[in-house]
Design brief:
alpha+beta; globular; 3-stranded antiparallel sheet
Length: 157
């Protein structure tokens, strides 16, 4: 059983991505195919609680510092210690390649840490970015070891 109001609110937050870091009310309403008044109430609540910030010049919203607070808590829980970062750097130096730590989140991969190589070609995604599991070598490796039903779901999307 799901709560429709909570689901709608989370859908609003999920519209804010690296590609679209700021959005206006009408843009959000169109993207979500939701009533403008409902979106306004959700956005107002998020703004009051610090999850969204309104730019007074553009009247567009962007993620607030409250989201960063939660991201820091998550980062601490993931226990990305110096050992992991050190080992990623060693591997990068040994191979001459960028090393990417990727985390499975449902049917997407999330970039958790990156150790860049000294080569001119660089890893183009930022930490925290998401991609479908059918894009990129590390993603495909994760996909290959998932249950057949999940693989079919990923391919179908």
């Amino acid at each position: 059983m799901e709560l429709k109001t909570l689901d709608n609110a989370l859908n609003v937050l999920e519209c804010f991505t690296q590609d679209t870091p700021s959005l206006g009310l009408r843009e959000l309403s169109r993207r979500l195919d939701m009533n403008h008044t409902v979106v306004y109430r959700i956005v107002s609540t998020f703004e009051r609680r610090g999850y969204l910030i309104k730019d007074s010049e553009t009247n567009k919203y962007r993620l607030g510092l409250k989201v960063l607070e939660h991201a820091i808590v998550l980062q601490d829980q993931l226990s990305l210690s110096e050992i992991i970062n050190t080992e990623m750097q060693k591997l990068s130096e040994a191979t001459g390649e960028s090393i990417v730590l990727t985390w499975l989140d449902r049917t997407e991969a999330v970039y958790i840490a990156v150790s860049e190589s000294s080569q001119q070609v660089r890893f183009s995604q930022a930490v925290g970015g998401r991609s479908p599991l059918y894009i990129g070598a590390s993603h495909k490796t994760i996909l290959a070891y998932l249950p057949e039903s999940v693989i079919e779901d990923v391919i179908a999307t």
